[in-house]
Amino acid sequence: xxxxEPLLTIVIPCYNEEDVFLETARQxxxxxxxxxxxxxxxxxxxxxxxxxxxxxxxxxxIVMESTKNQFVKGIKLARNSGHQKALLAGLDIAQQKSDxxxxxxxxxxxxxxxxxxxxxxxxxxxxxxxxxxxxxQTDTFFKRTSAVCFYRxxxxxxxxxxxxxxxxxxxxxxxxxxxxxxxxxxxxLRGIIPLIGFRSTKVFYDRKExxxxxxxxPLKKMLSFALHGLTSFSVAPIRFLTFVGIFLFLFSGIAGxxxxxxKIFGTTNAGWASLIISIWFLGGLQLIGIGIIGEYIGTIFTxxxxxxxxxxxxxxxxxxxRRHHQEKPxxxxxx
Length: 335
Ligand code: UDP
Ligand code: MG
What we know:
10 helices, binds uridine-5'-diphosphate, Glyco_trans_2-like, membrane, transferase
């Protein structure tokens, strides 16, 4: 049974977020304060900021804030590992001390007033609560349409994505434990979490504009994220290629017979046009095919290496104000 006053940790990945950090910390602190005062969550609930190798003042702001604000904790990754990995690092660490964890972006585009609803659902016994955007009016036209196409494609391929849900969600300890058993390096959390199963529900909200700073997901990162999502969840594109190949093979057989018949009974011309068309067509098709297969090989390549997904440089959450590598002096047991 869920505890009456669960210890909540809100995990917030931050990459060069010096413009929004203080405001975000202020607003989330207010939320935690209110919830703790109403005894909906434990008073030792925390905000865990994960600095994803920022090159600006983000980390020093986190450290400064953590000395003033009892709710604020931080971990610093050794380098920029990307949003999904930063988030996972935060979830892994937060899970050790929390009954439930909420993940949210640092720019507060997701409405923090529904955190209360998250907690209510959790107390009703739900293990995963998805925050779902009611509308995407504040996103650019491009981002909106590309997102719709992406979700449609993924659903067609049978990947159970929750429509209009990004990484704003609550998970309880049990769900987080299950999540840590997924060992993939190409993380696509919003695809993996529905696979966990468990009792889940949705909470709806309106997505706002970014508070300050600019998006850390430029087009290139967005495309690569979408491609990873696809190739780490479905082999349908490879299968599709096989079918195209079979179809073309049969078709070229028929065309061959036709050409032969023409040759024997009719007059053939130089055939330059058909030749050049097929060269381009087949060449293009082959390149697409090789590209798609390459994507999968790339995915397999990174998976088999199973490199660690992130490295934590400093951890102020479980080990306050101490550096990892200073804990154990080297050669202590050697003599
Ligand atoms: N982020 C991160 N590492 C990165 C890129 C982004 O931790 O390499 C964080 C970023 O600080 C923010 C969240 O991921 O908290 C989502 O990024 P952003 O709001 O820029 O994406 P958008 O909302 O534009 O898709
Ligand atoms: Mg954002």
